[in-house]
Amino acid sequence: MRRQGRGFGPCRPLLVVIGAALLLTPWFITSDADAATSWSVGLAASSKGEAQAQALPAAPTGVSAACADPTTSKTITITWSAVTHASAYAVYKATSTTSTPGSYSSVETGLTTTSWTTGTLTAGDNYWFKVVADIGTNWASAQSSATAESTINSSNPYCVQP
Amino acid sequence: MRWSFPRRTNVPVHAAARSRSFKYKVVGAALGTVLAGVAAYAATNWVVGLNSGSSGEGQSANIANISVTAVSSPSATNLLYPGGTGDVVVTIANSNPYPVTITAVQLPTNTTYATGYTTSALSTTQTGCLSTTPSDVVWNYSTTTSGSSHTLTTPLTVGASGQANNPLVATLTNDASMTAAAPAACTATYFSMPSLTGITATGGAATSTTSPATDAWTS
C-alpha cells in the first residue's frame, strides 16, 4: 500500500528554528560590533609624559636705528630681526641731551612688522631705542640691546648717526 | 476549511522514509552552517574599553581595558606657546593576550585644562599655571562637548601582553594647544594633559605598531 506522503511536515519545527536564527543573527552581530564602549581614563599626575611649553622668547637681535632722511626730516627708523612665534613687538625710547640715556619708556606697541619709524623728533636731543617681542597676551621677552645714539639737529643734517 | 500542505499520492512507504531522511540532513547541514558562522565571527573581534584612572570599570569577561599614561620620553619636539600647539607623548599598555588597535580617542571639553608642573617628573605643580588658574592648555580640537571623538591619522596597534610593542610609546603631534591668554607663569612648564574620556579600540589579530610611534588626530 502506498502511503500518502506529506511535504516538510516533520521538519516544520526545525524550519522555524533556522528561520529565527537567520533573522536574528544580523542583530546579534551588529549589536556587539556597534557597542563601541568607552570609559574615562586618567593620566596619572606622577607620570613622566606630558606636553611642554617653551621658555620666554629671547630678546630681539639686530636692533638698529637709522636716519630716515637726514637732509629733510627729523625722524628715525628702527629695525630688528624677527623672533620665532612672536605675535607683536613693542619699542621703547630713551632721550637725553647728553650722551647718557635716560630711562626707557614705551613709545609703540602691537607692531606686527620688524621695523618702525618715529614721528618728528626734538632738535637738540639724543635718542636710543630698545625692542621687546611679545607672544600672546602675557608673554614678553626681555628688552633688546639699545641702538646706537642718534642725534637730532635743528638744521641740515637734521639727523646724525655715530 | 483547514489548510494543510498539499498531499502527495501514490508514494511508496520506503521512498517516503528516504525522502524524510534526506530532508533532515539538508536542514541539519544548513543550521550547522549558520551556527558555525556566528561562532567564527564572535571569536574574531572584541570591543575593548579604556581603563579608568580613578575607579574600576565594568567590562566583559576576557577583555581587559587599555591604560594610557603620560610619559616624558621621547621629549616633545613641538613645544607649546601662547596661540600655538605642541606635541603630547603617551604610553599605551595592553594586558590582553591579543593585540589591540586604537582608531580614535574621545576628548574632554575645551575648558578642561592641563595642570602645569615644574619638571618632567610632574611631581611639583607650577604656581600660577594650574588647571584652575587656568593654564589655557587643552587637547587640540576638543570642543564644548565632552566625549567628542577624533580619529587617528593611522590606527595604533598595541602588541599582545608580553609581546613586542607593548607598552607602545606614541608622540601625538600638535595635539595640545595653548591659547594666546596663557599666563606668563606657564613658560618652560610641563603639563599633565586632562584625562581622555574614552577610546575606540578593537582586539584581534593585527600587526603591532613599532614603538615609539608618531601619530595624531587632525580634526
Question: Top keywords for this entry?
Answer:
heterodimer, A: 162 residues, alpha+beta, Immunoglobulin-like, six-stranded antiparallel sheet, three-stranded antiparallel sheet, 1 helix, rod-shaped, disordered N terminus, B: 219 residues, 2 domains, five-stranded mixed sheet, four-stranded antiparallel sheet, elongated
Question: What would you note in describing this structure?
Answer:
The complex is a heterodimer of chains A (162) and B (219). Chain A is an alpha+beta fold and 162 residues long. Chain A has a domain at 64-160: Immunoglobulins (Immunoglobulin-like, Sandwich). Helix content of chain A is 14%, strand content 30%. In chain A, the strands form two sheets. In chain A, strands 5, 6, 8, 9, 10 and 11 form a six-stranded antiparallel β-sheet that branches. In chain A, strand 5 (88-96) and strand 6 (105-111) form a beta hairpin. Chain B is α+β, with helices and mostly antiparallel strands. Chain B has two domains: 12-43; 46-215, no CATH class. Chain B has one helix spanning 13-42, and strands at residues 8-11, 46-48, 67-70, 85-93, 100-107, 115-117, 137-139, 148-158, 168-178, 190-192, 198-203, 213-215. In chain B, the strands form three sheets. In chain B, strands 3, 4, 7, 9 and 12 form a five-stranded mixed β-sheet that branches. Chain B is elongated and about 95 Å long. The N and C termini of chain B lie far apart (68 Å). At the A-B interface, strand 1, helix 1, strand 2 and strand 9 of A face strand 1, helix 1, strand 3, strand 4 and strand 6 of B. Strand 1 (3-5) of chain A pairs antiparallel with strand 1 of chain B.
